[in-house]
Amino acid sequence: MSNHFFEIQKGNFIASEKNKVNNVDLVIEKEGEIISLLGPSGIGKTTILRTLAGLQKLSSGKIFLKGKLISSNEFHLEPEKRNIALSF
Known about the structure:
Elements: E1 6-14, E2 20-28, H1 45-53, E3 60-65, E4 68-72
């Protein structure tokens, strides 16, 4: 369990067999903090965001929001219950 507003612990994100993002750790301490995912095209930014929103399942690792587990390889909270939006 996490005491941070948002946390990814050793997250592995998979878009396809060729496109994978492995071993991601991210902590957002307080609600309202602003972060940015930067990188070249095809590096996995959208895959990570789609997984956070619940549109894709997490391959392994854990994602917490407000101290509650929202995603792991054994648990997947439905997108409509996450209160997370994805906008481009």
